[in-house]
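Re: weekly structure request thread

Next one in the queue (446 aa):
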Amino acid sequence: MSPTPTRVTAVDTYDIRFPTSRELDGSDAMNPDPDYSAAYVVLRTDADDGLEGHGFTFTIGRGNDVQVAAINALRHHVVGRRVDELCADPGTVNRDLIGDSQLRWLGPEKGVMHMAIGAVVNAVWDLAAKRARKPLWQLLTDATPEWLVSQVDFRYIADALTPEEAVGLLRAGREGATGREATLRERGFPGYTTSPGWLGYSDEKLTRLARQAVADGFTQIKLKVGADLADDIRRCRTARGAIGPGIRMAIDANQRWNVGEAVEWTRALAEFDPYWVEEPTSPDDVLGHAAIRTGVAPVKVATGEHVQNRIVFKQLLQAGAIDILQIDAARVGGVNENLAILLLAAKFAVPVCPHAGGVGLCELVQHLSMFDYVALSGTTENRVIEYVDHLHQHFIDPVVMRAGHYTAPTAPGFSATMRPESIAEFTYPGGSFWAADLASDKGAAA
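Done, posted below.
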């Protein structure tokens, strides 16, 4: 008699919020009071190994109400599935979640539902990597090109990248992979830091953190801009004075501007030698980005953290609208869709510099960039991962920075597992922190 196959028994969700707005951490021109939050999901099974799949998508506060509800709407697609089949082919659940026609109507493949799909799909990959006893980047690196391509949905992108081309890119990427993996383990992957540049910080704090970033080995920092031009000129001058001419400085407008305004504002800051201008306008405006790129050169144009799917990324690349492509580990439909986007970037030879400003995003996206370096693009030239020094202490396997570089994770999984005590403290509204905070507010109002 064959053993009963193990199955997924539960998809548990948590609304986890951190009060980062109180210190203006994460503040920018469009989001002045973000509370870094995670709509968090745990896949539980009846396996004897005790392994779970953890995933999440990032929000900044009350949006978690909606985001958690969206994840719960997907539960029936996952509960009861065989664990071995799920982990052997995560693309199956990805296709099923995207293919739910009644939920797809709310997108399709964008917005809250697509982010929910990403959280669940990422949890599946976390479980698969844990069962394989490998960090996710290594699981992807060790996979065959054919299997990786089987995980990609080529619908709507085959005019720019065919499965055959993708296999060719991955086969070429395997050349020299062993040496690059050794280099990655020794040196890590280069990062840059946004920690000095939040819009709500004083000039004194900006100066102190910028100098500290250079001392810590970072060769690039980033400043938030876009609320007031005179303030931006002063802050950019302050930052450039703190870091000197040899350190790159990027600027990030967080979608603040119209197209013409983006060109004028960026030109006004050009004397401070910005390396790129990020999210200068709506993330959906492909032709607007192309016009801005022409208008601000040689300053580079970067975007992607709010780009909703592989189809918009395809158009940005086809239109020659960006110099830097910024993936986000949790904005699109999880690892599968990010594989598609990395392959598109490789096809168009555009460097990928991921977004990681948010709770847990550094932990996730490092795996995708490390896979890209070892097994696809084969280079770290002009490639950096954003680093934000916030909230890493809440994760079992937090990022480790060394001399401005991400150290390659060695623990099995996607580095997504949050500490149980952090979940208990910061789950909203019943966690110990929020229960006490809300009770204090009621007492003050009485």
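The longest helix spans residues 111-132. The longest strand covers residues 8-17.
Next request, please.
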